[in-house]
Design a protein that fits this description.
Helix content: over 70%
Oligomer: single chain
Distance between the termini: 43 Å
Number of strands: 6
Order of helices and strands: HEEEEHHHHHHHHHHHEEHHHHHHHHHHH
Length: 529
């Protein structure tokens, strides 16, 4: 039996206090940094051999200001959480997602009639395919923050299928971050790290692809094993009691779907359909072709016109049936255009927030809500995200205290010194451990690459290790601990949306984390020997 773990706020606040105490103990220091061009964009990197002592800056009352500073640093993710919380509340009020889940479950039950599908297990096939898709997104274009919107969809789906919120979170967030760890073409980690290490961009993709396959297969097997146990005995889930929220909400949705035998399509839904179709036609004229880039591969395709045509057809078919299915079509094409925007136009949080906000507002009008009703629903959804926003702000406060106390660079310098005088395999292991530990205090892959690769890459030359190994050690060290470190705003946001307490997640995930850390080292060894 596990002892009671403190509240998430208590854990993060305690870490802030510990970091403040360390600023009194660890001798302060700094590296000199310079701006260099990496793969066409400027990055701040450390000047080799530039570490020097700095003026001590012990943190005292700053622990109270760290929340505000954390909010400022994580403002983009916090605003994104509030916006998608409000947007999905507007959409969910229409019961469109509940109706869609009900239709999906009936479809999967129909597939059970086929003997071969019954032996495979429809649910297991669905979970595996969803995880492969999100893992591929993480490996190819570094999907991370974008998973937050999908957590809100997959968690209720997983609960509806007889699993729990942890299974739903693993289907999206964990799958994407395992793919992120074994990335093949991720420009935010592999691209930057290889550019700083001076090796050809996205070289070594064959072995990275092998690593991605292994890691993805392992996480799917682990999640399917856990999901199977939960389906057989739901009370084995550590989230069984807390998931009552999702079960009750789903029961209400199924009741509403049964009662609404005669599906309706209000006039407002047709108006929304015309507005969206007109806007997409205009965008198709402005963007007849899109350069979709995946790593160093690029293709010019008429993505917007093709998707516009598909939306016109699916939207019309949905409206002929009910506004519920039209809203589901809007949701589906929101995801499609999100992918086009990320791969073809460099979209990030502002654009993604905008497209989901538009989805929520238009869904509200399509469901027959007036403007005041949409605003009321949006505020309810944003209010539900407030506790998650506080967690993200606190997590940002940890980084603020470390930076203001000037102890991040001394920690980095001390860890780098551990590699001197060791053999090649041991050096790779130490390098991997250092990257893993640093990720706890610097969760940003791009920032960590800029900080560590200028030091690690030259050191690998000295001990006779390929710089590709150094990049891979950074890649694994950056990815795995992102799924447990409290300084990761994306993790805290995902847990908040799924309503999984941080202490419950740590208690469940730590064994899987150890498995991935060990597997990462095993995959590094062949590159050395």
């Amino acid at each position: 039996m596990f002892k009671k773990i403190p509240h998430t706020y208590t854990i993060i606040s305690s870490i802030i206090l510990i970091c403040a105490a360390l600023s009194w103990v660890i001798p302060p220091g700094e590296y000199v940094r310079e701006r260099v061009e990496v793969n066409g964009s400027e990055r701040t990197v450390i000047v080799e051999g530039s570490f020097h002592a700095a003026e001590r800056s012990p943190q005292t009352w700053q622990v109270f200001t760290s929340l505000l500073e954390g909010f400022e640093k994580q403002a983009g993710i916090i605003a994104f959480l509030l916006i998608i919380g409000g947007a999905f509340q507007v959409m969910n009020s229409s019961r469109a997602v509940d109706a869609g889940i009900g239709a999906f479950l009936r479809f999967t039950q129909g597939l059970e009639r086929h003997g071969w599908m019954r032996r495979l297990g429809v649910d297991r096939v669905v979970i595996a395919l969803v995880m492969v898709m999100f893992s591929l997104f993480g490996a190819v274009f570094g999907m991370s923050e974008e998973t937050l919107a999908f957590v809100m969809i997959m968690v209720p789906l997983a609960v509806s299928m007889g699993y729990d919120s942890i299974t739903g979170l693993c289907m999206v967030y964990v799958a994407a971050h395992v793919g992120f760890s074994g990335a093949m073409l991720n420009p935010f980690t592999v691209g930057i790290a290889q550019g700083l290490a001076g090796v050809p961009l996205f070289s070594g993709i064959e072995y990275r692809f092998f690593c991605w396959v292994v890691l993805t297969a392992v996480v799917i097997a682990a999640v399917l094993a856990y999901a199977g146990r939960v389906k057989r005995n739901p009370r084995l889930s550590p989230m069984y009691a807390a998931d009552a929220y999702w079960r009750e909400r789903q029961a209400e949705g199924m009741t509403a779907e049964v009662e609404a035998v005669a599906y309706a399509t209000p006039t407002g839904a047709w108006v929304v359909y015309g507005l969206i179709a007109g806007a997409l036609v205009l965008f198709s004229v402005c963007y007849p072709v899109t350069d979709l880039s995946v790593g160093h591969f690029s293709a010019r395709v008429p993505a917007v016109p093709v998707c516009t045509g598909l939306f016109v057809l699916s939207g019309w078919a949905g409206l002929r049936r009910s506004f519920h299915f039209f809203i589901l079509s809007v949701l589906a094409f929101t995801v499609v255009f999100l992918v086009i925007g990320v791969l073809g136009h460099g979209w990030y949080l502002p654009e993604i927030s905008g497209i989901f906000l538009a989805m929520g507002i238009l869904s509200g009008y399509a469901a027959g809500e007036d403007t005041d009703g949409i605003i009321r629903l949006f505020l309810e959804g944003a209010k539900d995200m407030l506790s998650t926003a506080l967690v993200v702000g606190l997590a940002g406060g940890i980084i603020e205290v470390l930076q203001e106390g000037r102890i991040i660079d001394p920690i980095l310098h001390a860890l780098a010194g551990l590699m001197s005088g060791t053999g090649r395999v041991v050096s790779v292991g130490v390098m991997y451990a250092i990257q893993t530990l640093i990720n706890i205090i610097i969760p940003s892959g791009s920032a960590k690459a800029a900080l560590t690769m200028p030091i690690m890459a030259p050191f690998s030359d000295v001990i006779g290790i390929s710089r590709q190994v150094t990049v891979m050690a950074f890649q694994f060290g950056d990815g795995f601990t992102n799924m447990i470190t409290p300084t990761s705003a994306v993790l805290m946001g995902a847990l908040g949306i799924a309503r999984i307490p941080y202490q419950v997640w740590v208690r469940w995930f730590w064994k899987l984390l150890l498995l991935f850390v060990a597997l990462g080292f095993v995959l590094l060894v062949p590159m050395v020997v």
